Amino acid sequence: MADEVILLDLWSSMFGMRVRVALAEKGIEYEYKEQDLRNKSPLLLEMNPIHKKIPVLIHNGKPICESLIIVQYIDEVWHHKAPLLPSDPYQRAQARFWADYVDKKVYAPGRKIWATKGDEQEEAKKEFIEILKVLEGELGEKPYFGGESFGFVDISFVTFSCWFHVYETFGNFSIEKECPKLMAWVKRCQERESVFKSLPDEKKVLEFVYFLKKIFGIE
Amino acid sequence: MASSSEKVKVLGFWVSPFVRRVEWALKLKGVDYEYIEEDIFNKSSLLLKLNPVRQKVPVLVHDLKVVAESYVILEYIDEIWKQNSLLPLDPYQRAMARFWAKFAEEKVFETAWNALCSGGEEKEKALKIAIESLEILEGEAKKIQNFFGGDRIGYLDIAMGWIGYWLPVWEQVGCMSILDPLKFPATSAWAKRFISHPLIKHNLPPREEMLVYFDKRSKELSSISQGWIKV
User: Fold this and answer.
1) Is the pLDDT of residue A190 over 80?
2) Which residues of B touch A97 (CB under 8 A)?
3) Would you give the DSSP letter of residue A144?
4) Which of A31, A115, A214, B160 is deepest in the core (most CB within 10 A)?
């Protein structure tokens, strides 16, 4: 019997994109259902009653929520192909540590860069660049965070890359200038089919942010 | 077993529930370790060397390998020492355990801590979320007989174990009521079972000292008033 895999998602969500990339890396066929978060569908409310958020993966009727938990689930279920986490427990711990770092640190200052201004925006920009430099340091000379193979940490962070244009535009800075090695890694990841097929165009994301700022009345 | 305890070290802070998680996991697996106390208000060069990125405890050192972040350490311990497994084998059950651990951390732990360290409207807001979240957890606690791990303590029990011991201390210090046993009978009963487990009850910080510490610490943090405190 074939697996039934459904993804409840929002096209611009860097968290939802993580799941899309993971599914694509594994070559898993699934049904993508775009969600309207201002008018939440009965399916979303049924499948994620606690957080009412995307992404939600529904596998043979059972929901799994929280993007990194979903990615680990995908890796464990479809373990015979394209491993996303290393097999060595210590390397796995390092991967989990860094994905957790991305998960805890990147989103909030990134959001403040486009959603605030003045001192708050400047603080956020400084913090954001610092975090990117830490990540660049961890990447080092490796082609991917996972070493020779694209993996869990790469997936957790590369999805922010389509939002870099937003941060650069509103923050008035260049991520390439601040973190050239990180941008080289971004370009390397974007050559992967799983990544370029799962991430939206950065111009579309910027347009979306202009729209968000308008409807939320953020100057 | 003396040589193996040299191989495993835990860098911790006596009152941290995150550190205890790691110790509980090691004890449940029967793994000997050396405990090194760290003063988090005066960080040692050892801590800064072992965990330069987050500069926090707990840190696990195993055969010169360094692992940080309590949940990351728990999974590492579970993968290295396979006896008395903490996480279920089934991927869906594992995802559920991880989900609930994250939920409890963000919606109960963080909110209760913020309620303790704030006043007025902020405190009320945090308390409301903590209690609403406990209502959701109560639904899960009603489904179990013994522990979330089944007959044995598992990952989720360890993740939420602070509820049975740290939370009552915070309630007392902060003059707040969060885990009302009348409102949350299943969660309260589970918490009691967890804290009274022989491997847990002998590995808890002294209550009186905790009251003094959290009273001082919460007053310090609330006077800085830095908004929401992320843990």
Assistant:
1) yes
2) 67-69, 72
3) B
4) B160
